[in-house]
Amino acid sequence: MLPTSLTQPLRRLWTLESFAYSLRVFIALAGVMALCWYLDDMGKLIPLFLGIIASALAETDDTWQGRLQALLVTLVCFAVAALSVELTFAHPVIFAVGLGVSSFGMTMLGAVGQRYATIATATLILAIYTMISLEQHGGAALDGLWGEPLLLVSGAAWYGAISVVWCALFSRHPLKLSLAHVFRELGVYLRLKSALFEPLRGMDIEQQRLALAQQNGRVVAALNQSKEMIFRRLEGQRGGRKLNRYLRLYFIAQDIHERASSSHYPYGALAETFFHHDILFRAQRLLDQQGRACKALSRALLLDRPFDHGPSAQALEDFNASLNNLYAQGRDEWRDLLSSLSALADNLATLEDKLAGADNPDARADHEDSSLFDRSPRGLSDVAERLQAHLSLASPVFRHALRLSVTLVVGYGLLHWIHPTQGYWILLTSVFVCRPNFGATRRFLRQRIQGTVMGLVAGWALITLFPTEPVQALITVAAGVAFFATRAHHYTLATASITLMVLCCFNQVGDGFGLIWPRLFDTLLGAAIAGLAVLVILPDWQGRGLHRQAATTLEASAAYLRAILDQYARGKRDDLAYRLARRNAHNADAALSTTLGNVLLEPGHFRKDADAGLRFLVHSHTLLSYLSALGAHRGTAGAAGEDNTAVTAAADDVAETLARVARQLAAGETVTPCKDSLMRHAGLLEASAAEETCDERRLLQNQLALISRQLVALSEAAGRLSIQASRE
């Protein structure tokens, strides 16, 4: 038994997402370094290291069987790529044609799915690594034609074997980390949501809504990642107790997300009416405590500890007591607002039940629909269809593939023209920097240059201070591990680490100091080529397509509303169709937030739509919040009432208005808001709700009224986007 002082730090390290990844890389790099030292053959170090790095970059989450299959495919791709480079390296024209065609084809595989894109990108990187390794040997193959490819593929196979064994031993650990990440992001969302209940007059609600929309994108991304992980493990394994427990936790997280994103009334009106009461403070504290409970649940999952949601349960009791006090005062002018607060209380009480159920997810009913939607391609025909759908200049994937292939061919021609030392680093920089849009390219370009400078300075200092080879070998391995530990979230540090690794690694077989200036020059040149390519070769300005992404958001919201109305007519059922409509609406909202983030990084002329887009995002996310409240309160069938044709007609009209505005926005036409019709529907619904005795029907009518009023503001925001799009 290890002492507690030692086990606690180890357990915390184990909960870090990058720790297992970094540990696998450490084992692979240290093993190769030790082998080369033992054989006294450091000449094989560089290709073996490069093969390990490429294999680690190609790694995707899967079961051990799936990872083994992916590894075999990856090794075949790596072998073909390395051999092709060997055979054509001495023939520049043939090499340039092959480079352009292969980079275009491999980038197009991104249209099939993320797994294909990852393997294809890693294959392209390994091809450039082969060029670098050949250039390091003066263009001559090491130990004959098969020498270089064999070493590169051996390094890749070594890391792949470690990865497969690791996955077989710890197949559930990544899933646990992913679900913990979901609940951590939900906790942040709930605490941001609590700020909306702060009883302040004149609070900037739009800014709060914008922050919520951006955080919602992070929650959606985390949910999507967990869903894909669960789905891959469920294939052929349904029924496993542990896996079903994680599946139930995922559904609990989905339910919490729907309730957390719900809105029942404009917050400004609540703050104005109840400014001198403690109800909003109680609501704020309850949401804050539930956010903290989600964070505590995340830690409990990671550390296998009991989960305590006592503070949030007490906050719920305090909120209900405050609400009962307001009801006891019997003021008629508060009736509508108290109904909304009562709906909020029911929603948060159910959210609290979901949190309590997360401590024992096995208690979730087994008869509920637990199917997941499979987004992966089904056979070669599906792969061909996806590729064919993107063979158009309108496709961002096609434009990026064409842009990247031209970038690499131009970079290859340039290095043959000026003959720089270690010139193939130009191509490697271009591959890492050239991204599908200007905003991402600009960010990675800056971080790549900054990281390279940092790494070169650190490398110069360390190989000067520690000239002995054993110390430099340790630094090489540590820097390689640091690259994989930081590349997902700290790209500047990752670039500095890989640069340091390269310097120390090359210093093991030659003169690392001689690589400093060439590496800096090649990085600047490769970054400049990639930056110019994104500017002039079929530039994919996100601002120009903002109205289309906004239209997609409205289409998804309309489909979500129809799915909700169908549930109100037939009764609550969390089936796949409903969950898919809900997830598509949140995915579209998250995609719009991501697109706007990219627009804000574009040059001023193309950023002119950003303000209108941000305003649209605030209104569309508010609409999604009202829809989520409707979805959260689904109950028995017939909530609209059999004789209440006005409610049914209003609901259908709202859904059709959403779809119509989406069509007009997608086509760049003038958006007609139908303000009078929407406001009339809102008034009728509010009047009907005031006389309603059934709580569920009253909530449906109130929410539809809120959605109708929100559609007015949303249509006006869509109109501004449409006008700006028509001026392009």
TrEMBL record:
Location within or outside the cell: Cell membrane
UniProt superkingdom: Bacteria
Signal peptide: none
Coiled-coil ranges per UniProt: none
Ranges of residues in domain Integral membrane bound transporter: 413-530
UniProt KW keywords: Cell membrane, Membrane, Transmembrane, Transmembrane helix
Residues that span the membrane, as ranges: 21-39, 68-85, 91-109, 116-134, 146-169, 457-485, 491-509, 521-538
Keyword Metal-binding: no
Membrane topology annotation: Multi-pass membrane protein
Integral membrane protein YccS N-terminal domain location: 71-355
Principal location: membrane
InterPro entries attached to this UniProt entry: Integral_membrane_YccS (IPR010019), Integral_membrane_YCCS_YHJK (IPR010020), Memb_transporter_dom (IPR049453), YccS_N (IPR032692)
A Pfam family recorded for this sequence: FUSC-like
PANTHER family referenced in this protein's UniProt entry, alphabetically: INNER MEMBRANE PROTEIN YCCS, P-HYDROXYBENZOIC ACID EFFLUX PUMP SUBUNIT-RELATED
Family (UniProt): Belongs to the YccS/YhfK family.
Protein name: YccS family putative transporter
Source organism of the structure: Chromohalobacter canadensis
Lineage: Bacteria, Pseudomonadati, Pseudomonadota, Gammaproteobacteria, Oceanospirillales
